[in-house]
Amino acid sequence: MPAPPRLQIRPAAATHAACALLARAMRDNPTHVAVFGRDAQQRAQRLHVFFGGVLPWIAGHGLLLAASEGSRLVGVFALQPPPRCRPAGWQLLRLGLRIVRGQSPAQIWRMLRWLHAWRKNDAQVAHWHLGPLAVAPASQGRGVGSALMRHALQIVDAQPALCHLETDLPRNVALYTRFGFDVTSQKTVLGVPNWFMQRRART
Which of 110, 149, 169, 195 is the least crowded, having the fewest Cβ atoms under 10 Å away? Predict the structure, then answer.
């Protein structure tokens, strides 16, 4: 049996394939179920719209990493550098109009509550904001997420600053802890536990 293609990680654009991978891989995250509803297919479609708005902004203001095996995309990781890792003003308004396209009023309200909670718990000093990080379901458990994180932290440590990320999955808390992140707070958002984690700057 031939060996599987070697994993390659490189900067990427905000492609349809990247949005689709994120929507597919993160479809069943508890927060996304709370925001977009219990219908899995509909949830994936709405997440695709959401990431279709978010990823171009990230790619334009930060860095998007793609992990591939041969021609197959298996992972995506976004990094937003300091000093401003989040949109503000007109940028925020334009981004908001993109991510709510096609969503129901109830979903828009839940989305606003979710994103407001994450923004409120963001680090208050200049920092790298990491995420979303996602691995294609068929490739999970094979070290792709760890490889993306190692690659990302090499980039981060070349421009040292605090790192911040969020997750609603306990298994991710364990993964990020292994890479030097500490839980700084835990909040319940739309009935779902969320962990906010930081890693000190490395020099």
Answer: 169
